[in-house]
Design brief:
This protein has 13 helices and no strands. The protein is mostly helical. The chain is flat. It has a domain of 119 residues. Helix content is 85%, strand content 0%.
């Protein structure tokens, strides 16, 4: 407590005001903690919710497991409006990134922002505890380090999520030409488009389980009555493969008109294979540029030390005499 009051005094230069500020912060923290505990208890021990959870499950063991998960979900629902941003644009952007990364649960966005808040709080207390062992630091430096750590904890989950989404989109894009080849073969073998899509989803699962799962979702939606164009559009939105919009349009037109899709799918398969090869060649062309940094930082210093070091030592000895 004295340490926190000392930190506050570095900002206000008045011991009495620092004590009042500390008491105010302590009161706000106590109120927030009490509200959180109240929300957790009300969600966990509400008689109505317990009754509904009991009715909705058949056996006691499964009821206990699912009830714990349901209570956790209800807790997230209760704090959803407090931790998610009010901007619809930001929510849609994060939700799209979560879908592209493979997190399609409706509570994924709430979990994401809950993780961000936990990281910010952890960073705040970690810096305070860490600076406790460095008394030479001034209050201004401690404040700067705290804000810097909280900023990193705020933006780090977004960077990690974008990286995960980008890697998943790349994996799907690399596996899609093979799926398209299988779709051409099955369509020309006489299967209808829905049956061919289901067969491709099962076969491609050995190469790319993620793409197989996405294609299976498309097939299930079509079987329950979702129109094929809508299911394929949702597939593009989930996976982030927006380069498939033209293919989806052509498939939709072929399904509506009953035309053969073999030639069209074959042309698109060749095009997507060419794109995959171009991406591989582009990555290979970048290797020379990427190797500059390890060469400069790791290999060249040792090479110059071995090649020029003895000559420099000899010159220094001559001048020293």
């Amino acid at each position: 407590m004295d340490y926190l009051i000392t930190l506050i005094m570095g900002l206000v230069d008045n011991e009495k005001e620092a004590e009042w500020i500390f008491l105010g912060l302590f009161f706000i923290s106590a109120v927030a903690f009490t509200i959180c505990i109240g929300i957790l208890i009300s969600n966990a021990y509400s008689p109505l919710k317990r009754k509904l959870n009991t009715i909705s499950h058949l056996n006691v063991v499964a009821n206990n497991n699912v009830q714990g998960k349901g209570q956790f979900d209800k807790t997230l629902e209760s704090i959803d409006k407090y931790i998610t941003p009010t901007s619809a644009k930001e929510r849609d952007s994060i939700r799209a990134l979560l879908m592209h990364a493979g997190y399609e649960d409706k509570k994924a966005i709430t979990n994401f922002y809950a993780i961000k808040i936990i990281l910010v709080v952890f960073a705040f207390f970690s810096v305070l505890v860490g600076t406790r062992f460095m008394p030479e630091l001034t209050t201004q430096k401690i404040l700067i380090y705290t804000l810097f750590a909280m900023a990193i904890a705020t933006f780090l989950p977004n960077m990690i999520l974008r990286k995960i989404a980008k890697k998943r989109i790349r994996r799907l894009a690399n596996a899609f030409p093979d799926a398209l080849d299988l779709l051409v073969v099955t369509s020309e073998a006489g299967l209808g488009f829905n049956a061919a899509l289901n067969r491709v989803a099962n076969e491609i699962d050995a190469i790319s389980p993620e793409l197989g799962q996405e294609l299976q979702i498309v097939g299930r939606k079509v079987r329950v009555g979702v129109p094929m164009p809508t299911a394929l559009g949702q597939f593009v939105e989930r996976t982030g493969l927006f380069e498939l919009q033209g293919l989806v349009s052509i498939i939709s037109q072929s399904v509506k008109l009953g035309a053969s899709m073999g030639d069209t799918l074959r042309e698109y398969a060749v095009e997507f294979r060419d794109r995959r090869m171009q991406r591989a060649e582009e990555e290979a062309a970048k290797i020379g540029t990427k190797m500059i940094f390890p060469l400069v930082s790791c290999i060249w210093p040792g090479f110059f030390a071995i090649a020029i070091g003895p000559a420099i030592v000899a010159v220094l000895e001559v001048f020293g005499k």
